[in-house]
Design goal:
Blueprint (H helix, E strand, L loop, with lengths): L1 H20 L11 E5 L7 H5 L28 H8 L19 E3 L17 H11 L5 H6 L1 E5 L2 H10 L5 H24 L5 E5 L8 H6 L8 H24 L4 E5 L1 H10 L8 E5 L1 E2 L16 E2 L6 E3 L7 H13 L5 E2 L3 H6 L11
Parallel strand pairs: 1-2, 1-3, 3-4, 4-5, 6-9
Antiparallel strand pairs: 5-10, 7-8
Helix pairs in contact: 3-11, 4-7, 6-9, 7-9
Pfam families: Lipase_GDSL
Family: Belongs to the 'GDSL' lipolytic enzyme family.
Protein name: GDSL esterase/lipase
Length: 359
């Protein structure tokens, strides 16, 4: 009897895992996927935007998939894995590629992107949204309403602020966070009102002060840079309420927020539990944290022999192993890591039937 009971429990767990792994869809079709953000979500837009040298197009980027693709990783990144999980067979292409097939969505993310400002060497978050609005008639209203909009933005704002204002006091830091979130909110409203977006999947910011490149450049030793992490913590605490406030005003808007910060800190603090041998040094680069120069031919970078043992591939970007784990949690994780709903829940129900969201 006990054996039969154990078999039933095992079968139930297996069925749950299998269902969680299968692509969820609406009306039998996988949703379109649109991604916005910085280099962590860039699938190659940088190389089409500028003729300047792009290290992500050279070896050892792409090492784990045998060739560089313009992704700042040894292989695939979070949006690639999410695309597969929602049922898309091909990764979303960089929107700036003139030959790209945009029928299943597009990536607008680009290296160096910020929320504030209009830099000449990249596209700000607002400019990415304007590009989407310019092209939005390529997709039907229903396709855009049921699509998933993945967003990862803000890291460069805080890293740039820390470099420009290393002695800023807490009041100045909080004021800067408020400016970033205010502009982010306005840009998201444009994406909703003019672009037709209804389902936002937002990744909060990781512990930027613990990045190998930050530890190396600011010479923090075994510690993280507190100033940057304080701004990130403030940003992340206010991000959920900002999104919730938007749903009060726009009743058909739904969102998912992934606690990327918490997941990265867990891996930094407990490397062996997550299968890492190193969570504070880069796999590729040079310097005290091996954090500078990956992909540059004039820099004598080191390359680790086993990428899966590292949390970070270069000074600020994850390895493919890390991004795959993050994507699986973003897609099907519980409310301890992604809330109020995960991406699977966003995909699996029509906007009309999603439950009212609470913080």
């Amino acid at each position: 009897m006990a054996i039969n009971r154990n078999l039933i429990i095992f079968a139930g767990l297996l069925a749950s895992f299998t269902l969680a792994s299968f692509p969820a869809n609406v009306a039998g079709e996988s949703p379109l996927l649109f991604t916005f953000g910085d280099s962590s979500y860039d699938v190659g837009n940088t190389k089409f935007f500028s003729s300047a040298f792009d290290p992500a197009t050279t070896w050892p980027y792409g090492e784990s998939i045998d060739f560089p693709t313009g992704r700042w990783s040894d292989g695939n990144i979070v949006p690639d894995f999410i695309g597969r999980l929602v049922g898309n067979h091909e990764p979303v292409p960089p929107v700036l590629n003139p030959k790209a097939d945009l029928s299943r969505g597009a990536s607008f993310a680009i290296s160096g992107a910020t929320v504030l400002g209009s830099p000449s060497d990249t596209m700000s978050f607002g400019q990415q949204i304007l590009k989407f609005i310019e092209l939005h008639k390529k997709w039907s209203d229903k396709e855009r309403a049921e699509a998933i909009y993945m967003i990862n933005i803000g890291a460069d704002d805080y890293l740039n602020f820390a470099k420009a204002h290393p002695n800023a006091n807490p009041v100045e830091q909080v004021a800067f966070v408020a400016r970033v979130l205010q502009k982010l909110s306005r840009d998201l409203m444009s994406l909703y009102k003019s672009g037709g977006a209804r389902k936002l999947a937002v990744q909060n910011l990781g512990p930027l002060g613990c990045l190998p490149i930050v530890r190396q450049e600011f010479k923090t030793g075994e510690s993280c840079m507190e100033m940057v992490n304080f701004m990130v913590k403030t940003h992340n605490e206010r991000l959920g309420p900002v999104l919730f406030a938007m749903t009060v005003r726009f009743r058909s808007l739904r969102y998912s927020v992934f606690d990327f910060n918490g997941e990265i800190l867990r891996r930094i603090n407990e490397p062996s539990r997550h299968g890492y041998t190193d969570t504070t040094t880069s796999c590729c680069g040079t310097g005290s944290r091996n954090a500078f120069g990956c992909g540059y031919s004039n820099v004598h970078s080191k390359l680790c022999s086993y990428q899966k043992g590292f949390l970070f591939f270069d000074g600020r970007h994850n390895t493919e192993k890390t991004d795959e784990e993050i994507a699986n949690l973003f897609y099907a994780g519980d409310k301890h890591v992604v809330s109020p709903v995960n991406i699977r829940d966003l995909v699996g129900k029509s906007v009309t039937f999603l439950p009212a969201q609470e913080i």
